[in-house]
TrEMBL record:
Name of the gene encoding the protein in the UniProt record: Clca2-L1
The protein's name: Calcium-activated chloride channel regulator 2-like 1
């Protein structure tokens, strides 16, 4: 143990914030880093225009570790009105590459939006627990390949369209690194602490936090039966937390029109699933360009 650091950061004189730092075991080559998009700035949780993202990077040396279990913990400091400790808030971080907020799948960087923190302004200790996910975690053994088959290549009669290019426009956002060669990660467990988040305002009583954006939509068209297959990752109700209320979609000949929601509305869309869940649905569509 390198040393102890005791500092009074509690909401009242009844509690203490205690930080204990131990020397890192570097024999496994495991590298873990935890940070936020807000840095050390105070957080205004009532302003949805400045969302905060929690990030954790997990690597073995320089190689990314995929499919690890990464759970962030937010512990409000001090005691509540009854003199008890506040209940911690747990948040599973994802390396899914859907684009909002996680940009690239397979790079070993896991992320989620900071959820709404109930109660009055306060200080929250941010930490994370990382493990090998019961043997599912894998380490990349080399650089990612540039060429890989898309899902549509295995589906007869379907051809695929995505958001990367539409009418020559580069639109957005998330993607994945297709690591062909991986090895199973050895068992590991790591606990890291970032520090204290200063929340300076209470969440708004109005529902003013939007869902996260859908940036991994894939459209596969079956001309034979006049059917389209849609695939996307479900957003949440507040950013990527819980589930959205409902979906709306339009079809338009140009990206700018679709983005402005000017086009033919699609019907038969499914009810939203919990955030982070993969949606797949088939819809019949009868209007085609000649």
């Amino acid at each position: 143990m390198e040393g102890d650091d005791v500092e009074n950061r509690a909401d009242s004189h009844q509690g203490l914030y205690v930080q204990v730092t131990a020397k890192r075991n570097s024999s496994t080559g495991l590298q873990v880093r935890l940070w936020t998009s807000s840095g050390s700035r105070p957080i205004n949780s009532s302003d949805p225009s400045t969302p905060v993202v929690i990030y954790t990077e997990v690597k073995s040396g320089v190689a990314p570790i995929m499919e690890a279990r990464v759970v962030a913990r937010l512990q409000r400091l001090g005691t509540n009105a009854t003199g008890s400790n506040y209940q911690p808030i747990f948040l599973h971080l994802w390396d899914n590459g859907v684009g909002d907020p996680d940009i690239t799948k397979g790079d070993g960087v896991y992320s989620r939006y900071l959820p709404s923190l109930p109660g009055s302004p306060g200080r929250y200790l941010l930490s994370a627990d990382i493990d090998y996910n019961s043997g599912l975690a894998a380490v990349a053994k080399g650089p990612p390949t540039r060429h890989h088959k898309s899902l549509s290549s295995h589906l007869p009669h379907y051809h695929q369209h995505g958001y990367e290019t539409w009418n020559g426009e580069q639109t957005c956002c998330g993607h994945s690194l297709p690591h062909v060669h991986t090895r199973r990660a050895p068992p590991f467990l790591r606990h890291v602490t970032w520090g204290v988040l200063e929340v300076m305002s209470s969440p708004s009583h109005r529902d003013n936090v939007p869902p996260s954006r859908i940036l991994d939509l894939r459209v596969e068209v079956n001309d034979t039966v006049h059917e389209i297959r849609l695939r996307w990752t479900a957003p949440g109700d507040d950013w990527d937390v819980e589930r959205a209320h409902h979906y709306e979609a339009v079809v338009a000949p140009f990206w700018r029109e679709a983005r402005a929601f000017q086009g033919d509305r699609l019907t038969g869309l499914p009810q939203p699933l919990p955030a982070g869940t993969l949606h797949t649905t088939n819809l019949h569509f009868t209007r085609y360009e000649e």
